[in-house]
Every structure is written in C-alpha cells, then in structure tokens.
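[audit] Reproducing an earlier prediction to check determinism. Same input, same settings, fresh worker. If the tokens differ from the archived copy the diff job will pick it up downstream; this log only records the rerun itself.
[audit] input (64 residues):
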Amino acid sequence: MSIFEYDEVRHMELEREESYQEGHIQGQLQVLSDLIEEGIITKEKAAEKMNLSVEEFLKKTKEL
C-alpha cells in the first residue's frame, strides 16, 4: 500500500467517523426535542444534557 492509498483510506475513515458523530448528535437533539414537546423534560435540562446554552440548544433543534 502506497502512502497515497493510505491517506485516501484514512480520509474516508475520518469522513465516516465525522458523519457518524454528526448523526449521533442530531439524533440526541431530536430525542430531547421530542421529550420537551411531551413535557417530560425542560428546555433547560435538555440544553444541560447537550452542554449547550438554552439559546444554542433551541437554535440547533430548529435546524433539524
């Protein structure tokens, strides 16, 4: 395997990991948003779980 092939494989692995992480975060935001709508959890608690301010949390959930 040449260094170029290795770099390409590594690049693909990193893209896949980044995509997985992004999907995981979006899934967490969606679940927390659903729990807020059901009245099970508050916006403040949901934002805390994601280590975000309430404003940041609301902005990210609106982007879903």
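[audit] rerun output stored. Observation attached for the diff report: The first helix runs from residue 3 to 37.
[audit] end
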